[in-house]
Fold Beta-galactosidase.
Amino acid sequence: MAHRPFRWPQPLEGQEARIWYGGDYNPDQWPEDVWDDDIRLMTKAGVNLVSVGIFSWAKIEPREGVFDFDWLDRIIDKLGKAGIAVDLASATASPPMWLTQAHPEVLWQDYRGDVCQPGARQHWRPTSPVFREYALKLCRAMAEHYKDNPYVVAWHVSNEYGCHNRFDYSEDAERAFQDWCKERYGTIDAVNDAWGTAFWAQHMNDFSEIVPPRFIGDGNFMNPGKLLDWKRFSSDALKAFYIAERDLLEELTPGRPLTTNFMVSAGGTGMNYDDWGAEVDFVSNDHYFTPGEAHLDEMAYSAALTDGIARKNPWFLMENSTGAVNWRPINYRKEPGQLVRDALVHLSMGADAICYFQWRQSKAGAEKFHTAMVPHAGEDSQDFRDVCELGNDLQRLADEGLLGTKLAKSRVAVVFDYESEWATEHTATPTQQVRHWTEPLAWFRALADQGVTADVVPVRSDWDSYEAVVLPSLYILDEETTRRVRDYVARGGKLFVTYYTGISDEKDHIWLGGYPGSIRDVVGVRIEEFAPMGSDFEGTLDHLDLTNGTVAHDFADVITSVADSARVLETYKSEPWVGMNGVPAITVNEYGDGKAAYVGCRLGRDGIAKSLPELLDAMDIDVPSVAGNGDVLRVERTNETGDVTFAFLFNRTHRSVTVPVDGETIVASLAQANDDGTVTIDPNGVAIVKR
């Protein structure tokens, strides 16, 4: 997959390159007498970049064809003269009322045909030619007005595409879906084959008979091939809209880098962000913490996946939160220290920019309770003091040479696939308790428990260059990925494969002959059926014990044969009537010059972690003891020659942890460097060591 050349926002004239630091800035929410105070506080905090104009269409174009740039000119000029660069939005994220009143046909429709009315945001159709015309007129006006502005260092194209308008079922979308299918398949017969329309009399004679997967009645089941393609199409339709904006802006402002903010998280699977990553000049991401015990690990996992999408080029954390968000049923606060620590997690994983939503907390509107760099309490607040502390830390790290380093390549890669997630979301599967996205996160966390910080990489990346690779519930294996799996192991690779991997091809057609169809010989097992588990009916199987003391929940494979080249490590223990007693659960197979382990059940993070020592030994993978073991998440950034390394040490526990360090501790948040060559890290703390 070809990627656009990497281009990064350059510093303002006369400034040195720094770690970009700031956030979304919405001066149009405030009277102008607040602006000067904003800039004073930004300077105090070390802010050097803000994103402006994201939701300002109605302010910039108050009436059709009438543009008001005066207010925007004034604030950009103030910012630039204070040494604060501008990431300027195309402002197309939400259309103004005058547009939707004049052209209600731009509003998207849900699967029942109900129209999304104005009143929030992203109420537009990605496939509307009318909306595209108006949006590109705005892009043209913005580009022509700001093409020579020295303070604008990047374009922020729209905002969080698909956050609310991922799916549109309108007539515009129907026509676009038909065209997409024609381009993808060429003939209607090929579509019929891909969707398996021989089942339930769904055969189509012409592309005009293709309709979106609209409401088909409660309790019914949509054609899975069609639904998978609809998700592909919807991601592509939004991407095409982005590309239209991007290309116009680039034509008028050549040389200025362009991006749009993704929403990569463990469960953030609406768009195929790896596919989108090829279309931006630099990857940027919005990430919001998961409350509770998974907070740190999920953040590190998501940042690692963002780095994988960026192919280890620097990436931009466009949004995160200083504390609570506003959109969950319960909006938990961050604990002391987490504001600084969370930012440094993203930095450790390859981000060269740390930004927040937003600069000043709103006093009105739907996001008024979303925390910000300047909270409702104002300058005299712990959050703002932490914001200033973080600014100082980023300045120190830049001075020490962090820029120019990248996330060091791990020995182990955990593979993630957006399309496998989409396929497992269908409502007619062996169990609704299993989705692809949870298993990569569980493996990332379990490996961290063993002191291994894995890379998280998309399925179309170079995962086959790693010493060891995990394919966690990778439901779809097309022919090309199957070939790569075979070649990787045959050449000496160490592969971990789990349940629910290699079930279908890219059309969601089952690989026949027993699971996992296309790589049975690689893993050395054959599965005839699945054994889902649950408690929704009294007396059903709700778990399976393994001989190593772990417990499987939700899903297990019924492995009926094992190759002579394979060794069974663990089996199930159950009552005879269950039919699973003695059935293999974990195996290791020799294939070519490599080995493939198979974990045939859902063990969760704890069960995987407990099983890993034996598995790693059987796979001949040596994991050297690391400082802190699983108590500390260790992430390294290094330069190209490897002679400069920054080690980020994050405390994963709720107690203080003391670990030896090799080098100088240059940043310590809730941490203390000791005279004996160790560092003590408190809960929510981090130490950064340079060597």
